[in-house]
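STRUCTURE:
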């Protein structure tokens, strides 16, 4: 989970010049212009950014192709809820250490056509204190295998959905399985989230 990041526009982070950044975040109290119900789960938590991503190399990260297509965006690690009333960073100012903030300097590979939707990007420096994650290189998942999705739905602090399952695995293209169907609890902001097959322990 700690290798997952929220993806931000560079204007949403401010360098404080002292080894920290401030995130330009807001409280999640409304959606689509309508106020949230008072019993809505996660109501009042901070939101920032527009997508999710994850680390696959020391300075290489992955997100969705429709999220990042050119350098300049930021990946912020550790955007986690720290307690029932404590948000990410030094609440309420959302001050995070510089070691959690990285900027995209190169788009290594990006696709957004023919059913593909991914961006592989290089960050401005190696990520500190987080382990790159293994990705499945061959084959595909089987129906019934358990899935864990980790990301930032509605660009809230990181959520872990461990109740998913592969429902269909027959979305085929020229190179074999291009997609599969699952029942993970995905929302806007989960684009680019890691989906881990819990059986072999790799990202699908």
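SEQUENCE:
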């Amino acid at each position: 989970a700690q290798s997952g990041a929220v993806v931000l526009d560079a204007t949403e982070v401010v360098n404080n010049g002292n080894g920290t950044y401030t995130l330009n975040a807001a409280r999640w109290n409304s959606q689509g212009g309508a106020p949230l119900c008072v019993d809505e789960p996660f109501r009042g938590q901070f939101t920032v950014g527009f997508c999710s991503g994850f680390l696959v190399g020391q300075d290489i990260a992955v997100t969705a192709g429709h999220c990042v297509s050119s350098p300049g965006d930021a990946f912020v690690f550790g955007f986690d809820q720290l307690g029932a009333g404590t948000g990410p960073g030094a609440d309420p100012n959302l001050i995070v250490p510089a070691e959690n903030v990285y900027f995209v300097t190169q788009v290594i590979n990006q696709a957004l056509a023919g059913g593909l939707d991914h961006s592989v990007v290089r960050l401005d420096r190696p990520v500190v204190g987080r382990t790159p994650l293994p990705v499945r290189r061959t084959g595909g998942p089987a129906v019934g295998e358990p899935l864990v999705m980790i990301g930032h739905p509605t660009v809230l602090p990181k959520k872990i959905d461990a109740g998913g399952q592969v429902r269909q695995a027959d979305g085929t293209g020229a190179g074999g399985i291009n997609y599969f169907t699952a029942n993970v609890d995905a929302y806007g902001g989960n684009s680019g989230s890691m989906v881990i097959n819990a059986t072999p322990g790799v990202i699908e």
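REMARK: The CA atoms of residues 38 and 191 lie 26 Å apart.
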